[in-house]
Each structure stands twice: as structure tokens, then as C-alpha cells.
Amino acid sequence: MDDSPQRAGAEPVERVALTESAAALLRELTAEHGPLMFHQSGGCCDGSSPMCYPVGEFRTGGSDVRLGDLDAGLPDPVPVWMSRSQFELWRHTHLTIDVVPGRGSGFSVEAPTGHRFLVRSRLMTDEEAERAE
């Protein structure tokens, strides 16, 4: 009998999660901006911040990977994307989107709220990494 993590019925591992504080802010922002999405910034001006945009205002394509969909208690899930090149470096990392006081990027919808989204990360266990593939 096969007892590898890939066996039938094994739950896939989520690569991305959300704190309740971040979910609450997403609900507020969705009321103002409509459905939202995240793209995990790869650096430069915004460091490695999760950038939040109204759906359709940030174009994703073949050079991006969809990490997952967040349940923020909204009618639609909030998709999370990352560039494929960055994903190759972070593929064994679990990300949790959180929110803290402070000014976010001028491009991310939470910037005027006095709060900013940030990502907390941890390495996945070997079993999680296998199940996430």
C-alpha cells in the first residue's frame, strides 16, 4: 500500500493564508473598491509586500503563478499571485497575509487607510512541500 503524501484523498496544502485582521480590512476595502486580488511584490520600491488591487487593474499572465484563493468572508475569494521567477525561489514557503499599522505602497488599495498588508512566511515541512506540488 502506498503511504506517500500524494495518496488518494490527501488534502492539498494551501500555499497562502490570511489573518482575521487582514480579512476584516479586505472586507472594508471590497465594499469601497469591489472584488480584490493580491500580487506578491518581488522587491524594488515596495520590498516584498503583498500588493492589493481591484480585480482587473493588475494584469497577470504566463509569467505569474496563482498561489491560491483567500476566503475573507466575501462573496468571491481573493486570488493571490506571484511572478513565476519569484515563485521558483519561494516554492517551499507558506505565506500568511497580515495587516499592521503604517503606510502601505501608493499603488496598493490599503495605502490611505493607515494600515498596510504584509506577508509573514515560514518554510513548509517536507510533507507539506510534497503535497503542495
How many runs of DSSP E, i.e. beta strands? 7
Structural class: alpha/beta
Element string (H = helix, E = strand): EHEEEEHEEH
Proportion of residues in β-strands:
25-35%
Low-confidence stretches: 1-8
Fraction of residues in helix: 10-25%
Distance between the termini: 21 Å
Main sheet properties = 4 strands, mixed
Radius of gyration: 15 Å
Estimate the global geometry from the Cα principal axes: globular
Sheet with most strands: strand arrangement: 3-2-5-4
If you had to describe this structure to a student in words, what would you say it looks like?
- With 133 residues, this protein is an alpha/beta fold.
- It contains three helices and seven strands, in the order E-H-E-E-E-E-H-E-E-H.
- It has helices at residues 20-33, 84-90, 126-132; strands at residues 16-18, 36-40, 50-54, 64-70, 78-83, 93-101, 115-123.
- The strands form two sheets. The protein has a four-stranded mixed sheet with strand order 3-2-5-4. Strands 1-6-7 form a three-stranded mixed sheet.
- A hairpin with a 7-residue loop joins strand 4 and strand 5.
- The longest helix has 14 residues, at 20-33.
- The radius of gyration is 15 Å and the shape is globular.
- The two termini are 21 Å apart.
- Mean pLDDT is 88; it is low at 1-8.
